[in-house]
Amino acid sequence: MWIKVISLRSPTTKMLSLLAVFVSSILIFRTPPPNGVPVKAPVPGPVYRVITSYRSMALTINVVWGTDYVSKLLSVLKRDHAKATFMVGGVWAKDNPQLVQQMVRDGMEVGNHGWNHGHPASMSLAANVIDIRKTNDAVKAVSGVIPKVYAPPYGELGPTILNAAAEMHMPLIMWTIDTIDWRPSSSTPYIVDKVLQKAHPGAIVLMHPTNRTVDALGQIIQGLTNQGYHLVTVSQLLKTGTPIADG
Predict the structure, then answer these.
(1) What percent of the chain is helix, strand and coil (3-state, nearest 5)?
(2) Which architecture does CATH list for 49-244?
(3) How far is Cα 151 from Cα 171, in angstroms, rounded to an integer?
(4) pTM score, two decimals?
């Protein structure tokens, strides 16, 4: 019996090898991950704003204190038919279930602002993931809603924090316009003017529950409405365009 030997250097062998590599590549990329486990996306950057053709902006309100003013802010938002994203702490949500439930009933978005307003930059990846997950669980326990977006306490950033948010499949939200409303010297006119002068499509506004913010909120909503803006939640804003990771 005669056996024909094909040289490994022959053109035919090279072509067959390239074809095999090509077919294998297709199979690798088309084959779904085992047990339905999603493929982890690359670590995204923080979201400071959104490039969008829509005249929309998002108000975010970080809540771990100022409880007495939260219901007042909700009343203004409901009265003026505006939406906002309340970034709540896990401990705060656990201690104030009725307010979290009211946020959901009023059509607001409830986001994640960490468990007890610790410093995520000083925590490990595992600790950050636990911090975010505990807060999600606390919000879900009192409202049935799982937060979709994460705002790190103190606006702290770094690879560990970004990786933790990515592992939880949550966009990490920063801000475009900081009202600095937590500072006693930031008067109501200052807060209003800062937002209205810096307003632009896709901007994210950072606020907190203070008496000055309550007084400013109605004027901000009216001023932005007069400029033709629609106030939406952060998750809604993200769907209108391209998130941008610059401050």
Answers:
(1) 45, 15, 35
(2) Alpha-Beta Barrel (3.20)
(3) 9
(4) 0.82
